[in-house]
């Protein structure tokens, strides 16, 4: 009881000091920023002085502290700010404060803010109105926003009113099918995936073949190449568990010129495949830049170094992209995490040093058998950051098998497909069996894999 009285006395004194030092912007800013929790009977009238301050930050903090009181005596002031303040963050905070009052007489004010020019303000107004969800008038007006021009607004309304009922799977989210664990299939990846059940894998990490840059990746046209990748990742989407990740390693590729009379062609693969992935339901999460040492890449700057003529500048490409996508879901990441038992969560935590930026400096790998292989360090980071121990990690373009080998090393299971028999044999040599393997690696033709399923 005495602690509460001391808090009231302290905050009331702060209110008096605020008014006394109203012209000292630094003092006002620091005080408002550090007010913390306020007692319900705090005299918020001292904050009204700052609602018209020339500093948008001070106005924002004044509104934020008024909102803590949830006192409808200040509704008229908050409404004026919500309607007229030129700063969108201040308007949004005012709408938030109005919504937190949870009073029926705030409905019309919040409905008016649905027409605000800033989608963030609109979403905040929707949040306040959802308190009254279930009332016919509320539901009718909010559900009509499914046709709103802004995608953020549509997403909120879709989740609240139009979310599809997802199929209920008998397999628990953290588990995967035993017949897929530590398996490499020598076959076309799309044909192979057709035999997999929906929501079978936890994580996909892959680097698709580069367009017409290797003997094993010749396509009749760039359009045909992109459409092939579209079909692959449509199947990957189907077999990926709800809310889980696809990481795609790609980079622009150069197709050499036919002769000195023609130009070489550079194809922006990461940017062209992106819109296909978005259309099929993947949500873009992050772009990670894989940076290699300059000495490890082909020199394109040589000509410019000699002549230094503008228009002839061609930098050495030392980066590739690792694009991060997540299968669309209405559920938050916490739902995925809570699906695992505490022992698995603790065992899967990333220990030691970890990368804090989206620029990963990793040396590339070179190999006599495969001309474009993943570095183990790249695989290691992806698998540790985007999966749990016991998860099933998939690579539709198995290549040299580094994803499988690394997954196994990190106590995950792997499932790989590889069409080329030479690379399939190489994977077989690279991934070895350990005595304590519960699921020893299996290397199957597509027909043999079909027999396993029967």
Q: What does the model show?
A:
The chain is 43% helix and 14% strand. By secondary structure, it is of the alpha/beta class. It folds into two domains: 2-161, Alpha Horseshoe (Leucine-rich Repeat Variant), CATH 1.25.10; 178-453, Rossmann fold, CATH 3.40.50.150. The strands form two sheets. A nine-stranded mixed sheet has the order 8-6-7-3-2-9-10-1-11. Strand 9 (392-395), helix 18 (402-409) and strand 10 (413-417) form a beta-alpha-beta unit. It is globular and about 80 Å long.
Output the keywords.
454 residues, alpha/beta, Rossmann fold, 11 strands
Tell how many strands the DSSP assignment holds. 11
Query: Ranges with pLDDT <50 over ≥5 residues?
Result: none
CATH superfamily of the largest domain: Vaccinia Virus protein VP39
Give me the CATH fold name of the largest domain: Rossmann fold
CATH structural architecture of the largest domain: 3-Layer(aba) Sandwich
Mean pLDDT: 90
Classification by helices and strands: alpha/beta
Report how far the terminal alpha carbons are from each other.
71 Å
Which helices and strands appear, and what pairs or packs with what?
Blueprint: H1 2-20, H2 25-33, H3 45-48, H4 56-69, H5 75-84, H6 88-100, H7 107-113, H8 119-129, H9 136-143, H10 151-161, E1 183-186, H11 189-193, E2 201-206, H12 222-239, E3 240-250, E4 253-255, E5 265-267, H13 269-279, E6 282-291, H14 302-307, E7 319-327, H15 333-338, H16 342-348, E8 359-361, H17 376-386, E9 392-395, H18 402-409, E10 413-417, H19 421-430, E11 442-445, H20 446-453
């Amino acid at each position: 009881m005495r602690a509460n009285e001391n808090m009231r006395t302290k905050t009331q004194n702060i209110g008096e000091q605020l008014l006394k030092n109203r012209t000292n912007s630094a003092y006002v800013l620091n005080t408002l920023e550090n007010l913390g929790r306020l007692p319900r009977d705090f005299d918020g009238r001292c904050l009204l002085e700052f609602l018209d301050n020339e500093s948008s930050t001070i106005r924002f903090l004044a509104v934020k502290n008024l909102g803590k009181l949830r006192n409808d005596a200040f509704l008229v002031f908050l409404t004026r700010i919500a309607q007229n303040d030129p700063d969108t963050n201040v308007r949004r905070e005012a709408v938030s404060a109005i919504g937190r009052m949870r009073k029926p007489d705030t409905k019309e004010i919040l409905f008016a803010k649905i027409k605000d020019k800033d989608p963030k303000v609109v979403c905040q107004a929707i949040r306040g109105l959802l308190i009254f969800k279930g009332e016919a008038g509320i539901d009718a007006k909010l559900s009509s926003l499914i046709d709103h021009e802004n995608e953020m607004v549509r997403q909120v309304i879709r989740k609240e009113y139009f979310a599809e009922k997802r199929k209920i799977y008998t397999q628990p989210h953290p588990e995967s099918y035993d017949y897929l664990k530590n398996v490499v299939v020598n076959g076309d990846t799309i044909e192979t995936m057709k035999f997999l059940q929906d929501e079978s894998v936890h994580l996909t990490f892959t680097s698709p073949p580069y367009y017409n840059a290797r003997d094993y990746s010749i396509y009749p046209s760039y359009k045909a190449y992109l459409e092939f990748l579209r079909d692959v990742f449509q199947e990957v989407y189907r077999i990926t568990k709800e809310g889980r990740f696809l990481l795609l390693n790609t980079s622009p590729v150069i197709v050499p010129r036919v002769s000195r009379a023609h130009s070489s062609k550079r194809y922006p693969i990461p940017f062209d495949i992106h819109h296909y992935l978005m259309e099929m339901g993947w949500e873009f999460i992050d772009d990670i830049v894989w940076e290699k040492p300059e000495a490890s890449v082909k020199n394109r700057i040589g000509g410019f170094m000699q002549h230094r003529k503008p228009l002839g500048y061609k930098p050495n490409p030392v980066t590739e992209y690792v694009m991060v996508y997540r299968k669309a879901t209405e559920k938050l990441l916490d739902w995925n995490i809570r699906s695992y038992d505490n022992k698995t969560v603790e065992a899967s935590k990333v220990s030691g040093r970890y990368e804090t930026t989206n620029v990963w400096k990793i040396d590339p790998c070179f190999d006599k058998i495969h001309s474009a292989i993943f570095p183990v360090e790249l695989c290691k980071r992806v698998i540790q950051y985007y999966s749990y121990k016991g998860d099933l990690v998939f690579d539709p373009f198995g290549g040299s098998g580094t994803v499988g080998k690394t997954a196994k090393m990190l106590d995950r299971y792997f499932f790989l497909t590889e069409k080329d028999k030479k690379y399939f044999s190489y994977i077989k040599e690279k991934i070895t069996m350990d005595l304590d393997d519960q699921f020893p690696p299996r290397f199957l033709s597509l027909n043999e894999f079909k027999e396993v399923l029967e």
